[in-house]
Amino acid sequence: xxxxxxxxxxxxxxxxxxxxxxxxxxxxxxxxxxxxxxxxxxxxxxxxxxxxxxxxxxxxxxxxxxxxxxxxxxxxxxxxxxxxxxxxxxxxxxxxxxxxxxxxxxxxxxxxxxxxxxxxxxxxxxxxxxxxxxxxxxxxxxxxxxxxxxxxxxxxxxxxxxxxxxxxxxxxxxxxxxxxxxxxxxxxxxxxxxxxxxxxxxxxxxxxxxxxxxxxxxxxxxxxxxxxxxxxxxxxxxxxxxxxxxxxxxxxxxxxxxxxxxxxxxxxxxxxxxxxxxxxxxxxxxxxxxxxxxxxxxxxxxxxxxxxxxxxxxxxx
Length: 317
Hints:
By secondary structure, this protein is α/β, with parallel strands linked by helices. Helix content is about 35%, strand content about 15%.
């Protein structure tokens, strides 16, 4: 029977999907440390890392029996995919279960940052309180504003659906222009990245992370944005130059930001924590009990599909 090493504390009820089909081990605490995985991996055929557990050459070399890395996350920048390919190890991800929760959270950040919900909440709790005047410290509207989506894949489109329902107009930048039928569905306009950055009222980063997209949003790109622009990132932290973004927020070059991901998670740049015009969350876009369980099921179905063909698998390599 094949053996599965799950690095994080998956709901045991979800893990039971493997009962009678595979042997598996779960950590007692929140997750196995890297050193523990290195000590155990030689005996396992399948490794299940989560999106914060980096699976590199050392782990794959120690895992002499490894045939499959079933990632708990849609992004797979936590895995050395090229080396896995060289070793003949299949890598899968979970694009379906994260779709709606991530789009939902991106739109929540958009609303919170634009309408200053986090700022108002903090200020109303302090002794000096908040200015209650009719024109004091206003937020920005959503209705009638433009949303520029960088990466109009399935999550980007799910975000567009929410934005259109709220009266926003959509422009997008993608590696490839979408079919006209999809564009028409959201009345979305394909534009260059520069046009999107210069013209959008709200900008959401939803592109996949890769070597080519590291710091794709830096000083040059931030300088192009409107002074009233709101920037949202639910993709990956390394796609944004965090220091440049912090400077732009501090100097009011852009209006606000909503960030769910960071360059050096779980560490957050201290200067970001001091700013009132940024909404911060701890990589929580999919953090609902329902979503986490659905993610676990999709991950397990990738394993069962790989070995038994009982489910379609989301194969990366």
